[in-house]
Amino acid sequence: MQLPYAEPLTVREPGERVVPEPPRRGEEGGEPCGICAGKSTAAVWQDEHFSLHPPVGGSLPGAVWLASREHVDSFSDLSPEAAAAFGPVAARVERAILGLGDVGRVHLYRWGDGGAHFHVWFIPRPLGMLEASGMMLPLWEDVLPNVTDEELADAARRVAEAL
Ligand SMILES: [Zn+2]
User: Fold this and answer.
1) Could you tell me the distance, in angstroms and rounded to a whole number, from the CA of residue 163 to the centre of ligand 1?
2) Which of 4, 11, 49, 161 has the most CB atoms around its CB within 10 Å?
3) What's the gap in Å between 3 CA and the centre of ligand 1?
4) Ligand 1 center to residue 19 CA distance, Å?
């Protein structure tokens, strides 16, 4: 693993904690939920529990995010049916992204710090790009040159077709 930045980097002290934390999008007191408002990218696939979306402004074609159809926050808030469906659908998405080719591994992230609507990211680590292993992939994804949003959407549609 290697940071996508040149040395020397120095370790910073963490800042003051902010408690209570500011409300997130889709949380009481926060901005409206963009997913529920239809302001996110259109779904390339959906079933009764989840919808699959391409990102915008990204560098890795094949990246997609999977959202719950219901406005719920995290895994513990999913309905029992959606929670039971998550594993199988995540496996299908992973397999479909691997099927695009040139993918070493599919990383799955649930951050939850931006919006309060359940969504997980599937990010393909390019085959052979060992410096982007583990936690380095989101950093590399950020600094690599973006591809066009059309390219991201095309790759997401190919993932959807393979589901
Ligand atoms: Zn929502």
Assistant:
1) 24
2) 49
3) 34
4) 24
Cα dihedral sign for 39, 98, 104, 49? positive
What is the pTM assigned to this prediction? Answer: 0.95
53 burial class (0-12, 13-18, 19+ CB within 10 angstroms)? buried
pLDDT at 145: 98
Is there a contact between 141 and 60 (Cβ–Cβ < 8 Å)? yes
Q: How far is the CA of 68 from the centre of ligand 1 (A)?
A: 8
Q: At what angle do helices 80-98 and 149-162 cross, to 10 degrees?
A: 110
The full set of domains in the chain, from first to last, is 45-162 (3.30.428.10)
